[in-house]
């Protein structure tokens, strides 16, 4: 089958012809109908985040159609439309049984530590295949498996309650889902911050108030947030960029008892004024990593009901060709890519 694989850290992805994976007794074989291109894939290609074993098929946002089921699989049928939970875990350890599968000691992420979805077919354990509602296109279902699910998990980590206010720092793929999800969960006010006026215009259509940060310092952004909230600050702030400045923006924009949830990845240390930013307001700084299988069912139910709509977010598709995918990764690395681009084999 055709696949697009990373041959070595720091190298472009390449076209490859590899065998169709075998379907084990507890697995399903999925014909890939859509696979997202995520900013994380930029880090994988560049070698900024370890990928093994190499060569490896990238792509962790996957949706498709089941074409074969293992002999022990009773939960799925050939022809089912599904999207894939990207954490392949043992399902038996204490963390898995408690619903904390992101901490499974043997867990492997699709497209990171085991072959992903930039291919014609992929095999996963049956429990990783989540039914895709009939009114959600494959392209949107694929993207929901990372950016939307990660945003939902971050909002849950922030313990968002109805009537509270939310700041979304970064209006990219995650931010566009975070705005919609925050409002669906009952947020009374959502403010989105970004440098890109086109992205801000889109999240404004979802119901967010916006701050364009192009010519603003981090302190200026915080001041604007406080002005827009009558000096109080926000109850929950999501940091989706991965930069110490934006992390401080999220933390310093909090109201008393506020919760700042950091999702963006950075290898630069964050300096915190513990009294001003944490103790004085009894604020919280929370890390959020990946998402849970249980949250995917909640997420897809929201999408089925129209509470989450990525029709205007998934703006481009490309074929399963290394040249096309490398072009999107290059644009993402320059922060010049459209909202979301999906590979359609």
Structural commentary:
The chain is globular. 30% of the residues lie in helices and 26% in strands. It has 2 domains: 180 residues, Quinone Oxidoreductase, Chain A, domain 1; 129 residues, 3-Layer(aba) Sandwich (Rossmann fold). It is α/β, with parallel strands linked by helices and 345 residues long. It contains 10 helices and 18 strands. Strands 3, 5, 6, 9, 10, 17 and 18 form a 7-stranded mixed beta sheet that branches. Strands 13-12-11-14-15-16 form a 6-stranded parallel beta sheet, sandwiched between helices. Helix 1 packs across helix 10 and helix 4 packs parallel to helix 5.
Describe the structure using short key phrases.
alpha/beta; Quinone Oxidoreductase, Chain A, domain 1; Rossmann fold; 2 domains; six-stranded parallel sheet; 10 helices; globular
Give a brief outline of the structure:
The protein is α/β, with parallel strands linked by helices and 345 residues long. The protein has helices at 39-46, 94-97, 138-157, 173-184, 197-206, 218-228, 244-252, 274-279, 293-304, 322-333; strands at residues 2-6, 14-17, 27-37, 56-57, 62-69, 81-84, 87-88, 108-109, 121-125, 129-131, 165-169, 189-194, 209-212, 234-239, 254-262, 284-287, 314-318, 340-343. The chain is globular.
């Amino acid at each position: 089958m055709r696949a697009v694989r990373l041959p070595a850290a720091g190298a472009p992805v390449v076209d490859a012809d590899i065998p169709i994976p075998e379907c084990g007794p507890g697995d399903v074989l999925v014909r890939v109908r859509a696979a997202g291109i995520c900013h994380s894939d930029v880090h994988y290609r560049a070698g900024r985040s370890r990928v093994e074993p190499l060569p490896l098929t990238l792509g962790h946002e996957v949706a498709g159609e089941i074409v074969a089921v293992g002999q022990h699989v009773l939960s799925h049928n050939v022809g089912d439309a599904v999207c894939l939970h990207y954490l392949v875990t043992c399902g038996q350890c204490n963390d898995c049984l408690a619903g904390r599968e992101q901490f499974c000691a043997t867990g492997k992420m699709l497209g990171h530590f085991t072959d992903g979805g930039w291919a014609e077919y992929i095999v996963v354990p049956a429990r990783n295949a989540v039914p895709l509602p009939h009114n959600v296109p494959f392209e949107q279902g694929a993207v929901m498996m990372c950016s939307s699910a990660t945003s939902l998990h971050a909002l849950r980590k922030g313990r968002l309650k109805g009537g509270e206010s939310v700041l979304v720092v970064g209006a990219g793929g995650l931010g566009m889902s975070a705005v919609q999800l925050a409002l669906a969960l009952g947020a009374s006010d959502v403010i989105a911050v970004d440098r890109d006026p086109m992205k801000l215009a889109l999240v404004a259509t979802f119901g967010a108030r916006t701050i364009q940060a192009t010519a603003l310092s981090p302190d200026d952004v915080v001041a604007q947030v406080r002005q827009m909230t009558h000096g109080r600050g926000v109850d929950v702030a999501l940091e989706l960029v991965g930069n110490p400045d934006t992390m401080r923006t999220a933390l310093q924009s909090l109201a008393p008892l506020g919760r700042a949830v950091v999702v963006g990845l950075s290898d630069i240390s964050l300096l915190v004024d513990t009294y001003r930013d944490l103790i004085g307001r009894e604020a919280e700084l929370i890390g959020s990593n990946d998402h849970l299988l249980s949250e995917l069912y909640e997420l897809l139910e929201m999408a089925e009901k129209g509470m989450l709509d990525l029709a205007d977010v998934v703006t481009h598709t490309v074929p399963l060709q290394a040249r096309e995918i490398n072009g999107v990764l290059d644009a993402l690395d320059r922060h010049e890519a459209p909202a979301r681009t999906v590979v359609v084999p």
